[in-house]
Amino acid sequence: MSLTKRVKGFVKVILGLQYGDEGKGKIVDSTASKYQVIARFNGGNNAGHTIEENGKKHVLHLIPSGIFHSEIKNVIGNGVIVNPVAFDEEITYLFNQGINPKNNLYISNRAKLMTWVHPFLDKAGEVRCGKDKIGTTGRGIGPGYKDARARKSPLVGNIFSANFEERLEKFESEQMVELETYKQFGYEVSVEDMCIAKAQWFKSLEKMKEFNICDTSYLLRKELEKGSHVLAEGAQSVMLDIHFGDYPNVTSSDTNTSGVSVGLGVPISSIISVGGVIKSYSTKVGGGKFIARMEDLEIEKAFQKEGNEKGSTTGRPRECGHFDLFALDYAIFLSDTTKVYMNKVDICPAKKIKVITGYKDKDGKLMESYPFDLNDVTELVTKEFDGWGDKEFDPHDIKTFPIELLNYLNFIDSEISKFGARLAYIGTGPDRNDYVKWKV
Ligand code: GDP
Ligand code: IMO
Ligand code: MG
After folding, report:
1. Pocket of ligand 1 contains residue 276 by CB under 6 Å
2. Which end of the chain is less enclosed by CB atoms within 10 A, N or C?
3. Best residue among 18, 45, 50, 282 to mutate for probing ligand 1, ranked by most atoms within 8 Å of CB
4. Is this prediction's pTM over 0.85?
């Protein structure tokens, strides 16, 4: 049964298919000019989306990656959690770059508001977990979404209400009780640090009031009705999704395509296609089992160094792993991806590289579905390829690609075509222009 489209325009989606940091920011920025609106639907300032042009690098956390295009409307949707301090810092950065987002940035009045206590609670929770910690970005994401789900924390639109401060104070006193409980586990925040954080938060909140805070679902409705093209920019990735990732080592938002409708307030039928971003190997930051992690730590180090694999938000080193086709099949199915954007084919500091094609269970049988518990995996089935090392090629011309790279790409393209997706774009460097369209 197909749904009838209610609107002339459409929504396309870009999201990560691995464990985040696939290069989504670069893809959104380089395809932005095809859209009238770019909208973030999930996460908060845990994201770090890098955009590079002519050696100048910008990292965006909360603000959509279309912000450098003044003619494009940029929307922070209702599914996003907004920390006013992070917002203020990013806005200040943009102003210093000569970008004034006041006229083309819209924040949903239904977006979740992060209080100044949430980041402390996040860090406290990690201390409490000890060796089992999630390895969060420490930005307050988990506690922030928890309180939003519990219907406790205010929404961004509430900041204009007459009783806002009174309501916030009540909530803050509950949060302080919670924070206090972590003292027994060794987490304590000094009164001075709390005062600084609180004062900064209120100052930033005042600045945020100068921006367009509105019903962005209605804004998107009007845009879609007049035929606009909207790009939904995912943060994190399908494999970090609260429902389908390796729980609890996941983030707390709906990172998947299903999150677009609920995180933007657009009808499901307006979403017409999904592009999934991957890189030519995998990386992961944070806790939990990284099943694809490279066994040879020297090779991993080489990928970290050449691929500049450190977190765009926290600066933590990213662990590097083999390309995982079995996980990709799962992510493609869940997200309904048809177009795959592969970045980082310019990085291959190894003579041999592996692709994971399957996982085996305790009986030595190939698993049919992605496992609920990664500890049930006893062996990885892999296929080995020759690496292309530092062989030179023209980043804009597939015909100049080394044969080893072509073999690798042809194999992946043919395998993902079995899952209903095709390679569409090959990223050959960090710059927004460093890519070439795949053959199809
Ligand atoms: P995002 O969170 O998915 O937007 O990705 P990040 O910005 O956190 O991390 C991706 C990193 O890879 C950034 O430093 C990008 O500049 C870089 N990058 C993106 N595409 C390519 C590529 O094709 N080659 C290389 N060498 N770097 C790339
Ligand atoms: P972008 O959008 C990579 C990871 C953290 C941790 C887990 C939970 O740049 O791809 P959280 O702070 O969300 O509670 O952390 O999720 N994580 C990311 N990893 N890229 C991201 O965002 C991430 N955002 C969160 O490392 O394992
Ligand atoms: Mg990132």
Report:
1. no
2. N
3. 50
4. yes
